[in-house]
Amino acid sequence: MASPKFEILGFTRHTDCALPLYLAPVQAGFPSPAEDYIDQTLDLNDQLVRHPAATFFVRVTGQSMRDANIHPGDILVVDRALEAQNGTIVVAALDGELTVKRLRHKDGRLLLVPDNPDFAPLEVSPEASFTVWGVVTYIIHKA
To answer: Is residue 101 among the annotated active site residues?
Structure first.
């Protein structure tokens, strides 16, 4: 199994990051002034991090999750406090190598499934060293 090189970043809240949140929906047509529609401020820490002590970030390499809209260079918000469920996207360590895949329980087998048909699922054997590091809660990527 090729080992993607993850950049793992911890979460430390240094300051609030309150930005304006507009009530008006954004149209892909004729622009209108938005200053009259400011409703409140939005702190991205509050939106993206539910469990600060259990949250970390990883930067993605590789294409195995491209159909889940996870691309090289994206940053994943990963929550260790959440329990991994069948079908959730997780960051896991399998035999000492980190990977991001969809967790699947199928016919009594545990699989790490890519969201790209060019990659094969990884079966987690009973002898394997396997740990789910956390559940991916958000994907941050540039437009």
So the answer is: yes
